[in-house]
Hints:
Blueprint: E1 17-27, E2 33-47, E3 54-65, H1 69-75, E4 79-81, E5 83-95, E6 101-111, H2 115-128
Antiparallel strand pairs: 1-2, 1-4, 2-3, 5-6
Amino acid sequence: MIPPPTLEVIQPKSFIMVTVTNYKLVESEEGDLYVRLILTGDIAMVQSSKTGNFYATTRRCSISATFDEAAAEQMLGKQIPGNIIKQECEPYMYETDKGELIELSHRWVYTDKSDEDLAIDELVTSATGATEEVA
């Protein structure tokens, strides 16, 4: 009797979906108006370094768009596969919702990389000491 063939289940790459939650019109250095979509990631639990308590938050970022305001309006609520990740940058001053000025040295950016790709990049970076710029 021949044993039945074994099937290997290949899981697709998992993506966290980001949602288009808003947009804004921005004036370029040349004086032209263009659309920036506001993207919001999934809920994340973060532990306070001061109190040790957890709180819920979401990551947000904005990306440039090539379409007009009417098209941006239609994008609201749409989900896009990808992630919002932390990217190191030159220090800058940021005003919080409470009016407090703080210095930050990171920003949140959209990437189309899957969770698996991000984990592989992190492993390679930690093993080689190399850093990769997110485009």
